[in-house]
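INFO  loader      accepted 1 record
INFO  loader      residues=180
INFO  predictor   begin
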Amino acid sequence: MTSCKRCGRPLRNPHSVSIGYGPYCAKRAGIGGNMEKSRQMPEREFTGEKPRVFISFHFEDDQGPIELLRHQAKNSEQLEFTDYSVKEPWDNDEWKRKCEERISRSSVLMVAIGEKTHSRPGVLWEIRKAYELNKPVIGMRIYKDRNHKVPEPLIEHGSPIVEWELAALQEELDRLRARA
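INFO  predictor   done
INFO  writer      dumping tokens
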């Protein structure tokens, strides 16, 4: 199987094979071409050094803790956040298209559980889309001192819920990587 010239991941999409780079690496390397074709088939989730994490959260209420988590993750050798918080109405078709594309390219969807997360339509849509795309989903309580309601799809699917600690999230990601 052909591997990406930049990161060494296996290339499965014919367009990616023809140019020698996956869509992310082609973009980072400044290689042109029609990368939409490359995005049609997501690469294997847990190949390479760092998992790609799509963060799902209630934008109005949980922005502060998410910024702190991103800052903490910058110091981690194994954790990479792929942040795709789209600042458009959640029911906008373009927003849904962007989220679906980005979730499909992620290793895991991490749901930041705050006070209103369980009832936010955009968050619930992202969770359901991740399950539809067979992506692992992790819930993470962003306030240790509060027991906020867990979104129903996480309960239905038995997704793991971890506390607000980078080490706890990293441990869960390592567990998922070991199963891949």
